[in-house]
Amino acid sequence: MEFRNIEKALRKEYKERLKESLKELEEGKEDKTKMDYLKGRFYIRKNIKDIEKIKEKIKEYYTKRLEKDLKLLKVIGEAEDLKKNEKIVIYVDWHKNRVWGYTARARDNKGHKSGIISGCGYDKLSTAVAQVLNQNKQILKELYKIKNKKENINKRNRDILGYGSGYGILPYFEGGVGIGSLKGVLENAGFKVEHYSTKMSDIITISK
After folding, report:
1. Burial class (CB within 10 angstroms; exposed 0-12, middle 13-18, buried 19+) of 151
2. Cα separation, 157 vs 147, whole angstroms
3. Contact, 73 vs 7, CB < 8 A?
């Protein structure tokens, strides 16, 4: 499946971002503080002073970013559609930790896994689940289909899919937004979602 509207939007966005960055470079080429900021932003060595070389590095940066997004777009487009009765099951295991209280780790029945989610001050469950969802091409494909519609391509992801569906052109699942938000995104994309909890585990089933 080709996502032509998304591809056009990506190319346009990177072209505009490149133009804006080159403009910032020209405006700041006599300002050491701004030049250092631009070099740091685009991972350019501090000792490069030639403006033309810096321009080339910035162009290279955006070219690689665009290529990466277009490659992802192609991979998602070629993913197999989720079958009507097919279920994706995400298992989240909780482990007691002396420092962080509890840590979470998620996995699904497709072989995708999250890292160990530790720390504090944010929602660990939705962070673990988001990491697994963002590896699932079948689920992302449904989000891309909605975003690719002509009437949606210029809208924010949250306005068409709900809070927690990412920033920028390509939708994705944000971590730390609460499991209810991720459930809302999935339901807006046409999925049925069920969530079961025990003291040391969570199970989330997703189907069309």
Report:
1. exposed
2. 7
3. yes
For 23-59, the pLDDT digits (tens) are 999 998 889 998 899 999 999 988 888 899 999 999 9
List per-block mean pLDDT (blocks of 10 residues) for the chain, which spans 208 residues. Answer: 94 97 92 90 88 94 97 96 93 93 95 95 96 97 97 97 96 97 97 94 96
The parent domain of residue 92 ranges over: 87-207
Query: Last residue of some domain: 24, 55, 78?
Result: 78
Contact 43, 36 (CB under 8 A): no
The dihedral through the CA atoms of 77, 78, 82, 87 has a sign that is: negative
Residues 6+ apart with CB under 8 A from 64: none
* Stated pTM of the model: 0.91
Distance from chain centroid for Cα 168 = 9
Which parts of 29-50 fold into alpha helices (H)? Answer: 32-41
Domain boundary among 16, 50, 78: 78
Q: Are residues 128 and 72 in the same domain?
A: no
